[in-house]
Amino acid sequence: MRKTNLILSVILIAVCGLFYLMISQLPSEASLYPLFVTTLFLILSLILLFKTYFNKEDGEETTFKGIELKQLLFVIVTCGLYVILINITGYVLATILYVLITLIGLRVDKRNSIFISIGFCLFVYVVFKVLLNVPLPKGIII
Amino acid sequence: MKKILLLLLTLTLAFSLVACGDGGAKEGTTDVTDFPNKPVEVIVAYKAGGGTDVGARVLASVAEDKLGQPLVILNKPGSDGELGYTELAQAKPDGYTIGFINLPTFVSLTLERDTEYEIDDVEPILNHVYDSGVLVVQSSSEIETLEDFVNYAKENPGDLTISNNGTGASNHIGAAHFAYEADIDVTHVPFGGSTDMLAALRGGHVDATVAKISEVASLEESGELRILASFTEERLENFPDVPTMKEKGYDILFGSARALVAPKGTPKEIIDILHDAFKEAIESDEHLEKAANADLPIKYMGPEELSKYIEDEEEYLKEITKVIDLK
Amino acid sequence: MSDMLYGLLNALTLVNLFAALGSVFVGIVVGALPGLSAAMGVALLIPITFGMPADTALIALAGVYCGAMYGGSISAILLHTPGTSSAAATAIDGYQLTLQGKAGKALATATIASFVGGFLSTIALYTISPLLANLALKFGPTEYFWLSIFGLTIIAGVSSGSMLKGLISGALGLVISTIGMDPMLGIPRFTFGQNFLLEGLPFTATLIGLFSMSQVLVLAEKKIKDMDKIKELKDKIYLNWKETKRILPTCLRSTVIGTVIGILPGAGGTIASFVGYNEAKRFSKSDIEFGKGNIEGVAGAEAANNAVTGGSLIPTLTLGIPGNSVTAILLGGLVIQGLRPGPDLFTIHGKTTYTFFAGFAIVNIFMLILGLFGVRFFAKVSTIKDSILIPIIFSLSVIGSYAINNRMSDVWIMFIFGIIGYFVKKVDLNPAAIVLALILGPIGETGLRRTLIMNKGDLKSLFSSTISWVLIILSVLSLLSPIFMAKFEKKKDETLA
């Protein structure tokens, strides 16, 4: 956990830096409270940094061990593309495609994947649009 | 598995039929002569159940009959109403999408920030509600009259606290304008909305508040609050004992209005049809009774009068924000 | 009294019973779907109730409100994707139980606890409404400031791992809660020039990202063969008598907590469920199991958030001051029906009001029946393969974050916080603490700054009321106990830490 914690505290301190930078552009009256909470955040992050740095006992590094990185990236990318696609084709079409591709990518057999993607979409359409009257995202085309 | 397949197929079929049917119905013509030949959508830029929404639904329920087509209320809340206003401004100007705007918010948003709509993106139909501003204190307060209020503030500058519904929001402007005219120093305390603002007064956490008459009418009647003055031209009909700011020498008119508008470019004939139907609805007994139950102060204004009112409001806000400090 | 009897009988008419049953069902579905909250369910129903008689309309609204509050726990327990923010605390122990194959037990606990909380808060509504209503008015800016401080002390309690990381998570939540318009001055802070950020981060979208989408990514990093492993339900579905007895004191304590917090405008279900969870942990004999799948944790959170339903109605009905966004919408529903909040509700409109109250109790009974009946089916969800859950949860997250404001920018916020949430989970920071701080931050900031404006910057005014002192003492107690507990635990399992 030691390495993770060191990187984490550095990132957190960087986030503090970013906020300090933005605070400096605020009028002084409005900056007081954000300054206070950001400083609190900074102090805690520094404590983590020092605590980890001086604690030489190194537990085993398990944080990102044994994860399927390619698969994880695949899911993140398809999710992102899906949201972009919704803007173009609207919710229904994008969802059928997205669910189908994700399922096949995760090795669900093809026939089931097709059933699930269409079935889920129907379920969503009926429950949200027809029964609950919740608007579904619209795209440029639909 | 086969059964599931069959079921899915049937559902898909039903689904496509529904989708087609839906598409077919939406293909209304913009032919003016038979307007309206399909339901009219009414955009409300605030949450379902909020003040604007209640007003819209009360009016819509009566106006449907007069118009001969259903009115579908669509709530589009977000960014203080900007989201809904933008959608309204950008809607197809065929009369099938109209909406409610709140004044002065509709105008003041464009002055405060770079909004995605402009004031003249909409075509006025008519005004529905006019809610007058009032200055109120708790009935247990030592301050009995407007003179007491001003005198106390002069003797103890900055001591009197007035709650409002947000920095730069309508009630803040009213309170600050009054303080400016009376030349007194008071402390404005912003709250998240008019309910919180009023709760702060009722709990005795602040000394006074500037509210709308519909929000405090029942509390004055129950003896919990006292109205010191109204920001109106003439005395309020239901509170003839309450003086106006004007008669006390402070020339301030202040209140909020809710009006029905259509996107710019909607044909004049259609505006007229809508106007006539809604006017008839507003003046009907059924509507007036429902409105009284919901504490809605009704004030009809025609398109020209409303248009003038919006212009005046813009003028007023531009002027007043120059002289008073809203920070 | 006759009004009460009339109300009870009226609520038992076929139409009203049907409205109660149907609306609870809809409420449970709305609550269980990630992202659709109780507020949304009630808002969706308002237009429909417009055409109904007042009493039936109100019962239907109550049904959706209570059903959704409970329904949120189902997805929180089964998928670690709380359907509503008030179920975030339920997810802590509930999901652990699901991982152990005890989904049925967790669901049954949530059902019973929700029923106890909801039903008993109805009784509070009947009996002590006017008495408690004034509490809502006594809470001014100073008291809200201290309430938020008290709420923040819970972070120490909900951090199951490292306390320092729990505190860091809380501080992070406070920092991002400052995004948006300065509440006192109206100046934009950290909005990156985006208008939609002026009112702050869209809370629901942020929550869905932190909990639901991050969960999708956690599932996605697993090996395919682990994903396909079918999780079995190892446990008997329902609670046995011993377990029921074990959660009962927790339920009762959380009911009181939920009712009181429900009364306070602006506090709401999320804070109540976290306080309920934290107190359950403090009083429990087996507090070490908390965070690892303790039914008392589930009960503590669920009883509290359902008790909020009755509590939040108290100031809504008696004073016209809604306790949260749901009751704000409900208040609109009342006004549309021509019922003005205040003493008149209990005299002139007594028949309708007491029908509503009786309906509220009936709604809770239906909720119990539907819930217990449904546990068997709900629990099956936990056996669905992860590879199928991944696209489905994300797709529902998209709808949930879109539907609040109908804008795609919220979906992107959800996406960003989904990725942040994934790393947050990986490095042992605490998403629950972030959410808690996100809610409490603005309450505390506005409370403090209003107090200072009203008293010309005099800090002594923060210590001037009795309620403030009660909250200060509660905060100190809440802060000290986990420190003692931590020391105690450390001695016990030095090596594991």
Question: Overview of this structure, please?
Answer:
- The complex is a heterotrimer of chains A (142), B (327) and C (497).
- With 142 residues, chain A is mostly helical.
- Chain A contains 5 helices and no strands.
- The model of chain A has no long low-confidence stretch (mean pLDDT 88).
- By secondary structure, chain B is of the alpha/beta class.
- Chain B is 45% helix and 20% strand.
- Chain B is built from 11 helices and 10 strands.
- In chain B, strand 1, helix 2 and strand 2 form a beta-alpha-beta unit.
- In chain B, helix 2 crosses helix 9 and helix 2 packs antiparallel against helix 10.
- Chain B starts with a helix and ends with a helix.
- In chain C, strands 1-2 form a two-stranded antiparallel sheet.
- In chain C, strand 1 and strand 2 form a beta hairpin.
- In chain C, helix 4 packs across helix 6, helix 7 runs antiparallel to helix 18 and helix 9 packs antiparallel against helix 18.
- The longest helix of chain C is centred in the first third of the chain and has 36 residues.
- Classes of the chains: A mainly alpha (142), B alpha/beta (327), C mainly alpha (497).
- Chains in contact: A-B, A-C, B-C.
- The interface between B and C is large, with 52 and 47 residues.
Question: What keywords describe this structure?
Answer:
heterotrimer, A: 142 residues, 2 domains, flat, C: 497 residues, 2 strands, 74% helix
